[in-house]
Amino acid sequence: MTDKFDLIIIGGGPGGYVCAIRAAQLGLKTACVESRGTLGGTCLNVGCIPSKSLLNLSENFHKVKKNYFEQGIEVSDVKLNMEKMMKNKDKSVQILTKGIEFLFKKNKVTYLRGKGVIFSPTSVVVYDQGKKTSYETKNIVIATGSAPASLPGIEIDEKNIISSTAALSLNSVPKSLVVIGGGYIGLEMGSVWKRLGSEVTVIENLPFITPGMDREISNEFQKILVKQGIKFQLNSKVLSLENLKSGVKIEYQKNETSVKNDILADKALIAVGRKPYTEGLNLSKVGVKKDDKGRIKVNKKFQTDIKNIYAIGDVIDGPMLAHKAEEEGIAVAELLVGQSGHVNYDVIPGVIYTSPEVAYVGRSEEQLKKDGIVYKVGKFPFMANSRAKVNNETEGFVKILADSKSDRVLGVHIIGPHSGDMIAEMALAMEFGASSEDIARTCHAHPTHTEAIKEAALAVDKRPIHF
Question: What domains are there in the chain, each with its CATH number?
């Protein structure tokens, strides 16, 4: 007898598993299909979580080796044990994936192992090790995520020419690493291997790094990374990669002069973005349409052209962020039971987990200028923040953009220590429509890094206290 569900979700990543748990909480008989063998998707298995583990561990190693001596902490004979570091990373991932399985059992979500294929708007077939099982369902959510993109004609072999997946599991430190792409993933991975001993060069087609970020923050970020020893070839187009036995030969061309150059490296990391993963789902057969970028088309309720088939996360338009997918998963589950699920896309924070961290929420100066919005700016540097000063973490600043007339906060951009955590305060403030004056008049504990937020809010009205 065919199993029947109220909802089947294809994909067990942050969007899919969160959607499944919320739907089950709301009383829907729910199943989640995942082909990887472990839950958590790219984020937990080969993305956000393992990369943050290596970022943290490599930063600790770098501090012990380079920074602590100047602060009176003398440690001799510091060694890197790559095998132990990778085991620590893998253990964290394993614990968290098992944790999702526990949450499924706790919330009575059926976990279906295998590849899910949509055969009709009410049926999903799961293929697992040669076995084919059909399931009936009232609703389907596509949450299959994304995969690393490459450059035309360049094959990622995960040996010398690698994606972020292989960059998280190298068994030795490459002497030299070329990162192709100056976005979040490339800069995070470049930072990891630079701190562990690689010579890192970033090649970016645009004349600046981190496209879409507030340009002032982006420029400051690059200056800090250059001080850390990362080299940049900006406004440069990669022409070819030649896989050699000893490494990779990268040919690139300066966009302004058309001058061609070569770089030899042990490894080349392709970090030019990600593409929606929708292959093999039978979408065209059941009538689910995609746009010219391969993303599934949905309406404001996340419905595809087939009203009971929904899509969330990286397969639809919007930033490819785990927390964005989670919010969409919860919204869909609530919409299915008649509640008013909603995602505020104006208040989705983004974070780059380098050292220092970079975080933002809302609009950049460039976006405000483009939209013709008159705004005020308040900035405060961490070098004037007492906690940052005593911790020797003085690089960067907080920048608040507020509407000139209403004083409502329109965007916040932070580069500095713990900015990934600090941005949450500003996301909450913006969600509730706070003005810069509201933030300026909110008492912040002393001494904390968050006082820089209060001071930046005061600076919007040109009245900072400590700068």
Answer: 3-148+275-343 (3.50.50.60), 161-272 (3.50.50.60), 347-460 (3.30.390.30)
